[in-house]
Fold this protein.
Amino acid sequence: MQNPDQIHIQIVSDFVCPWCYVGKRRLETALASRPAISASIAWLPYQLSPDMPREGRDRRAHYAEIFGPERARTIMEKMAATAAAEGLVFATAPGARSPNTLAAHRLLYRAGQTPGVDQNALAERLFAAHHMHSEDIGDPAVLVRLAAAAGIETAGLEAWLRSDAEEDVVLALIAEARRAGVSGVPFFVFDQRQAVSGAQSPEVLAGVLDQVMAGRRRAG
């Protein structure tokens, strides 16, 4: 049950999106600058590459196909510099995969539906695994290990991930986000009052937190 004393923040994202990880860090910085504000965070799924094969593709080859080899290299270097400013060390090791993220989204959805599980902590591990450690988060065995590290019960989990259980639920949530006008991620919704698109600066996000709290006070 949602705590009425907390701002409820929903984040629509995809794990392969570097700006989503940067946006997560910037939101955390904004919240740290407002210690009087308590927030609960829920993650909602989105897929930037819904047609990605279930086994994924070589990441460097995938980026080169989208942007061209030289532009892909430039984009990755600039993104790494942006991430470094937020304390994140991005890396793409040889052989790193661009995964289909549907299984990872199913896992995060399941975490959000499980009492006592910190969905936000699992989201952090999924982002770090992909962007910092070049792990294949499309691999159910990798997902089980990340789930265990986040304190999730793993008995039968790999078999569940290899099935299509709750796939329809996650796909429906993605479709719902698209119908609501979400065309890029990250996309933040604060208290169902204000929406922010993109990895805005901590200052902008802190300003939104202030506006939401002011709106609550006016509403009495």
The mean pLDDT is 96.
